[in-house]
Amino acid sequence: MCGGFTCSKNALISLNVLYIVVASILISVAVYGRAASIVTNLPIIGGILACGIILVLISLLGLVGAVKHHQVMLFFYMVILFLLFLIQFSVACACLGVNMEQQEQLAEQGWGRVDNTTKEEVQTQFRCCGFDEQYSANDTKMGHPSCEEVNLLCCPSKADINCKCKPCMLKLQETINYAFKLCGWIGLFFSFTEFLGVWLTVRYRNQKDPRANPSAFL
């Protein structure tokens, strides 16, 4: 019967296998988000990455506990999984709550920290020149390398002598926004599967193993 011990056991094992897949997705998305931002270190996305790594470890504990019906393992699995649900849910909401002004500040702080080599890489990748027009190329913190080569990419036609690449601020802001939204929605969606795991573990712990000694049940 589906509500019995064997069904609960198989469901919990399957759920933990799913968690390993989910953790792999969270880690991949977080790594992509950090790499896509290039100049900006996004600590909130680092939280999603940490949740993914912890989820892998917790899933292994849950698998062993489910197979052995180990009461102590299942208890700690249930508690840690619930705490992980709260953390991941909070981090995902924080990712979705970052507004455009905060994203612009992150982009500006990141641009000011990196060297000209990284800035030149950003300009080539996004086909843009400098962070914002209000900053000169020789600015100590917010300056940028020469845009001669990247302007050729932006303006292949030499007929328009006034043509030049747009500033990188909007490009970086769009990338940061996409990274936050991607990590936020995926983290939020999968956090509810962890709550399901807590409920299933509570149910499974309170069921008797029909093959075990009845007097040994706690």
What does this 3D model show about the protein?
With 218 residues, this protein is mainly α. The chain contains seven helices and no strands. It has helices spanning 5-37, 43-68, 71-97, 100-113, 116-126, 148-154, 169-205. The protein is rod-shaped, with a radius of gyration of 25 Å. The model has no long low-confidence stretch (mean pLDDT 80).
Rg over alpha carbons: 25 Å
Derived from helix and strand composition plus strand pairing, the structural class reads mainly alpha
What is the end-to-end distance? Answer: 23 Å
How do the SSEs run, as a string of H and E? HHHHHHH
Shape: rod-shaped
Q: How much is the average pLDDT? A: 80
Number of strands: 0
Count helical runs: 7
Q: What are the low-pLDDT stretches, counting only 5+ consecutive residues below 50? A: none
Strand content: under 5%
Helix content: over 70%
Query: Main sheet, how many strands, which sense, barrel?
Result: none
Layout of helices and strands, plus pairs?
Layout: H1 5-37, H2 43-68, H3 71-97, H4 100-113, H5 116-126, H6 148-154, H7 169-205
Helix pairs in contact: 1-2, 1-7, 2-3, 2-7, 3-7, 4-7
Features:
mainly alpha, 7 helices
Question: Brief overview, please?
Answer:
The protein has 218 residues and is mainly α. Helices cover 71% and strands 0% of the residues.
